[in-house]
Write a structure and sequence with these properties.
Elements lengths: L1 H19 L5 H13 L2 H40 L12 H55 L5 H33 L7 E4 H11 L1 H6 L3 E5 L5 E4 L1 H18 L5 E9 L2 E8 L33 H11 L3 E6 L4 E7 L3 H6 L1
Parallel strand pairs: 2-4
Antiparallel strand pairs: 1-3, 4-5, 5-7, 6-7
Length: 348
Amino acid sequence: MIDGVLQEPFAEYFVRFCQNVLGLSFDSARALYFTLFQQNKAVLEMIGFSIILLICFYFGLSRFTRYFNEISSGLDCLVAETEGEITLSPEMDFMTQKLNKIKDTLAKRQRDAREAEQRKNDLVVYLAHDIKTPLTSVIGYLNLLEEAPDLPQEQRAKYVTITLGKAYRLEQLIDEFFEITRFNLQAIVLNKGVINLPFMLRQMADEFYPMLSSQEKQVVVNAPEGLTLWGDADKLARVFNNILKNAVAYSLENSVIDISAQRLDEGIVITITNQGNQIPQHMLSTIFEKFYRLDSSRPTDKGGAGLGLAIAKEIVAAHGGTITAESNQEYTRFTVILPDFKAEIREA
């Protein structure tokens, strides 16, 4: 390009410049052109090419620097937790979307953490308040027994029964305090083995018999004999216990709670179904969160620390399974699906 296109016009212009401006003759101007440019053409070409590269590098680096500055500004907005969306130049749209997605995710996690912390704080306050009630009763009845040693045996037995009941309630509330701490500090470690699932479910239902009989409720277990499961027996028993405890607490009197288990293509499916008040649809996704209770206004004798279903979810997830809930006007059903590790069971 230099030899065929640019050289002749440049040579003519340089010779004319030397003749008109410097007053040189044509031969002198031509000799000067040859000395300055023709003999040093390779060097001049390299210098020119280097200058062009430097210019291109400068503009390219300036563009990248601007992009990096925009990204840095976006990250500053992300760290500063500013309101509104992060906006970058149009060509950085992909980065804008990623930064805004990260911002939304972080904001949601912060909201969830604040809500969980608030629920925990409220629960601690409620539990602390509720502890005072049975404690006051225990102290009161013990004082009566101490101050009136000649009370009739029937009256004394009544006071002892009431005091024992209040003491049990006090123990339950204190256990809930420890449960709150253990949930946050303990990691779930599984000790797996072969589980006779029908036997476990029937044994668990028998443990609830005193609570069920007082409310004229019953539990029916439908599980085929020989149905085995590979998992941590103690922790899975806690899962089913927490779900059944919830079903017993919120089911209607004179109703039947159904526990079913079967092996399907997706794995071992266990369902616990009870008849009771419908859980609102918008609450079904939150009942497995820490410290969440349907009746969140106050803890009652029916409710605990709001950790039962959250712990159940953690244990099921540690086994590689899922737990879901559905509710309508006819029933509320919790479904636990656990992997069917037949190969592991045979090896064991």
